[in-house]
Amino acid sequence: IKALINQIKAEIEKTDSDSDKEKLQERLAKLAGGVALIKVGAATEVELKEKKHRIEDAVSATRAAIEEGIVPGGGVCLIRAEDALSGLGLSGDEATGAEIVRRAISEPARVIAENAGYEGGVIIERIRTEGGATGFDAAKGQWVDMMKTGIVDPAKVTRSAL
Questions:
Q1: In this predicted model, what pLDDT tens digit does every residue of 31-90 receive, in sequence order?
Q2: 73: buried, middle or exposed (CB in 10 Å: 19+, 13-18, 0-12)?
Q3: N or C, which terminus of the chain has less Cβ within 10 Å?
Q4: Using 50, 70 and 90 to split pLDDT, how confident is the model at 127?
Q5: What DSSP designation does 53 have?
Q6: Model confidence, pTM
Q7: Residues 6+ apart with CB under 8 A from 18
């Protein structure tokens, strides 16, 4: 299979025809295991569009996770980054900027908790004291290891959002 993949790559570089390149790239993707067909059905056009957008988001998140890995979700990894900001020894505008970022990075955890009917400040303080990948599963109202329970975020998405 590897030899065939290399052969197709060479053919892609040699050909001048766009349609041939496209067909060869499709063959290459199928051989390399990078193709999946997802069929979506729905009762209405609106429901179909909503499902399509959710699937597109999931596929994008999966690609991002493959690229850069995953981190504990629910804002836990951002709260863990607070210590790194505190120890930078900055002054002036840089210190002000770091303080703004430090305050902002706890907001995802706060919003998740409050949207589920919990006190955001209490949840954030407990995340800070728990350490590791321990976080709050807002759907179940339980403290869990976010990595073990699958409550994760793609590192690339978290980094880009920050």
A1: 777 667 788 889 999 999 999 999 999 989 988 888 889 999 999 999 998 878 877 888
A2: buried
A3: N
A4: very high
A5: H
A6: 0.67
A7: none
Contact 135, 110 (CB under 8 A): no
Q: Which residues contact 150 (CB under 8 A, 6 or more apart)?
A: none
Q: In whole angstroms, what is the distance from residue 7 CA to residue 85 CA?
A: 49
Tell me the one-letter amino acid at 41. G
Alpha carbon distance 118, 75 (integer Å): 15
Query: What is the pLDDT averaged over residues 10-20?
Result: 88
DSSP output for 62-104: HHHHHHH-EEETTTHHHHHTHHHHHTT---HHHHHHHHHHHHH
Count of all residues that appear for the chain in the document: 162
Number of Cβ within 10 Å of residue 18's Cβ equals 8
99 token code pair: 């303080």
CA–CA dist 12, 24 (Å, integer): 6
Query: Is residue 145 within 8 Å of residue 132, measured between CB atoms?
Result: yes
Predicted confidence at residue 47, as pLDDT, reads 95
Backbone angles phi, psi at 72, to 5 degrees: -55, 135
So what's the pLDDT on residue 121? 94
What the block records as the tokens of 130 is 């728990």
